[in-house]
Structure to design on (189 residues):
């Protein structure tokens, strides 16, 4: 790049450099092509393995740089899932919780919401129309959020909570009728 010097004494900038946006961004320490290749390595391998592979190619780069390049990439724009799983997850056990949204057809996470509030879930569902079915836990807040954000969606209990409900119901039955089920009441045919 060419360096240009300003002869005007009152000019606040003394030195100018030529801009080549196709080659490198202003103040960049690497070309656009190298940044694309490092991003590809970072996406494929991650931080430390990508840094090791880049070192074998003669490109000294830290794992933090690769991860920073990966984080700068825009998320792919995908349509809202038709079948959505909703459950809570914890930032910090017993202190702060969020909501995890999973595309159950693709078996991949879609979004992490900051809390377990009905309004937050309803807002996400309104901005991502097209959800037809939602598998959720027994949370009343999730039920209200789904009703408000996607009233057309069918709500169902997910497998884990369905089995948990069955287990609790069987515990109640066995506790209530335990004396009738003892071995002394068994008959051998």
């Amino acid at each position: 790049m060419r360096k240009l010097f300003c002869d005007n004494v009152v000019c606040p900038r003394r030195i100018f450099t030529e801009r080549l946006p196709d080659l490198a961004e202003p103040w960049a320490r690497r070309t656009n092509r190298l940044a694309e290749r490092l991003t590809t390595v970072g996406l494929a391998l991650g931080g430390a393995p990508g840094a090791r592979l880049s070192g074998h190619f003669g490109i000294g780069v830290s794992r933090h740089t690769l991860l920073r390049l990966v984080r700068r990439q825009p998320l792919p724009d995908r349509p809202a899932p038709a079948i959505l799983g909703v459950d809570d997850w914890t930032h910090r056990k017993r202190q702060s919780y969020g909501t995890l949204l999973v595309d159950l057809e693709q078996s991949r996470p879609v979004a992490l919401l900051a809390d377990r509030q009905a309004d937050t879930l309803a807002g996400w569902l309104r901005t991502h129309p097209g959800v037809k079915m939602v598998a959720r836990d027994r949370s009343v807040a999730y039920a209200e959020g789904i009703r408000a954000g996607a009233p057309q969606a069918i709500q169902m209990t997910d497998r884990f909570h369905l089995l948990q409900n069955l287990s609790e119901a069987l515990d109640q039955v066995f506790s209530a009728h335990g004396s009738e089920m003892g071995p002394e009441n068994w008959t051998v045919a």
